[in-house]
């Protein structure tokens, strides 16, 4: 489903991602972990299309996509939930989720605003999709509530539902559990697990090893922009290079 070969990206001459190889089969939930500054978000943005690589390639479903703009990747089925993403305040939960579908309709958001007949038809389709995605994330009962009124855990659910509205086949999640309380993390984990059971391929970038251990089929560990280990959660947790990278980060923090 996703193959990354020799991917490189530097900022001001310093490598953030250095010769990274990654292969994620269809239907797998892959976690990418690593200490602060390991290059996780950079890798995420190189796959999602927010950044261009200096070298190497990203192949998605047989197509080389590393020069494609992010909206083309979205249309091809790559859904993204960014680190620290915000909900649209002042809008309802349902409206927040509908925004996710506008990007993939032919008329887009502008068409929805001008309300031509075809756009009205698309608007109805979008509404249906949004309701379906809210149901998938267990948020239907909140559809007409102001999104600001929801606790942070459920706001993350709204972001997930918004990404699902684009009907992704590969879902990229950057630290979705950050800032959540233990019970909210558990709920989010259950939600992500359900998506995987539905057949979605998921790439989950996360700092917290415990969170991914329960969820991931396999884990790729980055440190200083390079892959230092890859395997099942049990394998990487026992890996000496991984332990050293995390301990080193704590000592220097
Ligand atoms: N836009 C940028 N401009 C300059 N340097 C950057 C930029 N983005 C990332 N970096 C640098 O690249 C390195 C990797 O950063 P990145 O954010 O990818 O790591 P990370 O593993 O996601 O860290 P965190 O867990 O803290 O989010 C860091 O040294 C960072 O300072």
TrEMBL record:
The keyword Transport applies. GO terms for cellular component: plasma membrane. The lineage of its organism: Bacteria, Bacillati, Actinomycetota, Actinomycetes, Pseudonocardiales. It comes from Actinophytocola xanthii. The gene is livG. The keyword Cytoplasm does not apply. CDD domains: ABC_Mj1267_LivG_branched. Keywords: ATP-binding, Nucleotide-binding, Transport. This is High-affinity branched-chain amino acid ABC transporter ATP-binding protein LivG. One of its GO terms (biological process) is L-isoleucine import across plasma membrane. Pfam families: ABC_tran, BCA_ABC_TP_C. Residues 2-249 form the ABC transporter domain. One of its GO terms (molecular function) is ATP hydrolysis activity.
